Amino acid sequence: MLDLDAVGWVRRLAEAHERQLTQLQLWNTYYEGRQPLSYMAPELLQEVDDRLRQVVINWPQLVVDSLEERLDIEGFRLGGAEQADRDLWDGIWQPNGLDEESQLAHVDALVMRRSYVIVGSGDRPGDPPVITVESPLQVFAERDSRTRRIVAALKRWQEPLRGGGAEDFAALYLPDATVHLHREGAGADWVETDRDEHRLGTVPVVALVNRSRVADRDGVSELAAIVPLSDAACKIASDMMVGAEFHALPRRWATGLADDDFKDPAGRPVSSLSKIIGRVWASRNEKVTFGQFPEADLGNFHETLNSLGRIVASLAGLPPTYLGLASDNPPSADAIRAAESRLVKRAERRQRAFGGGWEDVMRLAVLVRDGQVRSEAERLETIWRDPATPTFAQQADAVVKLFAAGLLPREMAWERLGFSATQIARMQAMEDDALTRLTAADLHALSTTPQSAAAPGSPAAQSAVSSWPADAADG
Predict the structure, then answer these.
(1) Looking at residue 471, what is its pLDDT?
(2) To which H or E segment does residue 206 belong?
(3) Spatial contact of 149 and 209, defined as CB atoms under 8 Å apart
(4) 3-class secondary structure, 433
């Protein structure tokens, strides 16, 4: 690790962040549909002036959202455990609202290559650790070239001043301390204002990286291959609107007429648009001739957009129907699942990559709360919802068959059916309560039965035992 003071680390990380910030902001602009107009000729822009409004076909957002919608975390399982851990879910995950916040982290990681999660202590003793999802537009982390682990991280943000302008703030995260700094302007020096000596021995920042490479641990945006095609589609769609403006309506011509001849019944001059789309032109002058140019066919624009859409679908693994490329015959259920197979596999790959990051987050939270990490937590597993889209009836049928064959435990069967950790805990409690009430009723029946009738092997005793659940009888 480099031997730098807090201000030195801030300068180093800020410079590295600035080199990537422009590209990150561009990815974010494309996802939000605010990208600049591309491929338009300057002469055309000058001709249409401010009348041209870009038609945005937001395929980048579609590509990201279609993948993110299949990334839902349902719990965490400790090493060696059969069920999801309720303490991690109820004591850490839910108090931080990570059901919703994790979705934001996944979107930013897919769009801007990575997102970050920062873990800190609660405001008061006994409070759960504070876990916040952070944007790569504000946070940057440096990794060790040998271990590939984060050695320092920086978060920067601005707050407006009452008299105008803004004040810069920064939080520097180091393995043993968190340092807070501020400066009063872009050219001013950073000044340390507070320091928290947490002594965790690790940086409390985790990066969720999309499509990490061996030589590039910062990841790759899902939009890298889609943006050029999206630019082309927006250009074609904008050209189509220009064509509709100038050539979609048949243009009429006349010889022997002046502008003063175009008047309404009251003798007032008519507008240029009325001249273009007027139904009838007439003149009493026998030398006047009329004609009409053929209207433009916009079908070539439609076919070009369809071709670009097919390329996007192949690159992103999306079913063609997601991009509006529907066929005349509705696809069958098997055909829909086959078309989604690549999308499902891509979602499973992201689950594996992001799951490792979320496991690091939960281990950090346990370290902050308890001061140590149990050995079971070192083998933590993230439980994801199935990214495929089978019907509930199909999923239930498959799970019941596996359970009946003894290939699937009951708790795992509940997980495969999509029940959350909280719902599984409730079902277990309800089963335990029902078993307790049933056992108590049977014991009461035995206690009120005459001794001769309740003797071992008697019909009454056998009937009472046979009515117990299998689990109770084994006990």
Answers:
(1) 47
(2) strand 205-209
(3) no
(4) helix
Backbone dihedral region of 440: left (phi > 0), alpha (psi from -120 to 50 degrees) or beta?
A: alpha
How many angstroms separate the Cα of 145 from the Cα of each of 104, 136, 175, 216, 219?
A: 29, 20, 16, 11, 15
**What was the pLDDT predicted at 284?**
61
Q: Which of 146, 143, 91 is nearest to 122 (CA)?
A: 91
Residue 259 Cα distances to 8, 53, 74, 123, angstroms:
74, 30, 72, 78
Q: Locate tokens 């009836």: which residue?
A: 393
Give pLDDT, residue 115: 97
User: What pLDDT does residue 35 have?
Assistant: 86
Q: What's residue 287's pLDDT?
A: 72
**Could you tell me if 57 and 323 are in contact, meaning their C-beta atoms sit under 8 angstroms apart?**
no
Rounded Cα distance, 388 and 351, in Å: 13
What is the token pair recorded at 274?
A: 């009325």
Residue 300 and residue 24: Cα distance in Å, rounded?
Answer: 35
- Report which residue type is found at 221: S
189 DSSP 8-state letter: P
Residue 166 CB coordination number (10 Å)? 13
Q: What is the pLDDT of residue 470?
A: 47
Q: What is the pLDDT of residue 252?
A: 67
**Widest distance between CA atoms in the chain:** 127
Instruction: Give me the pLDDT at residue 473, please.
Output: 42
Mapped onto helix, strand or coil, the DSSP state of residue 85 is coil
pLDDT of amino acid 250: 63
Residue with tokens 């003793």: 125
Q: Tell me, what amino acid is at 155? A: K
Report which of 183, 181, 184, 173 is spatially closest to residue 149, judged by C-alpha positions.
173
SS3 labels along 366-414: HHHHHCCCCHHHHCCEEEECCCCCCCHHHHHHHHHHHHHCCCCCHHHHH
Collect the ranges in the chain with pLDDT lower than 50.
273, 454, 460-461, 464-475
**Sign of the CA dihedral running 453, 455, 460, 464:** positive
Say if residue 115 is exposed, middle or buried (CB neighbours under 10 Å; 0-12, 13-18, 19+): buried
**Residue-range domain boundaries for the chain:** 1-248+296-388, 250-295
The H or E element containing residue 244 is: helix 227-246
Q: What pLDDT score was predicted for residue 336?
A: 74
pTM listed for this prediction: 0.76
pLDDT number for residue 140: 97
**Helix, strand, coil percent content, the chain, rounded in steps of 5:** 50, 15, 35
Question: Is residue 187 helix, strand or coil?
Answer: coil
**Residue 371 — left, alpha, or beta (φ > 0 → left; ψ -120 to 50 → alpha)?**
left
Chain-centre distance of CA 396, in angstroms? 27
Q: What angle separates helix 6-31 from helix 98-112, to the nearest 10 degrees? A: 80
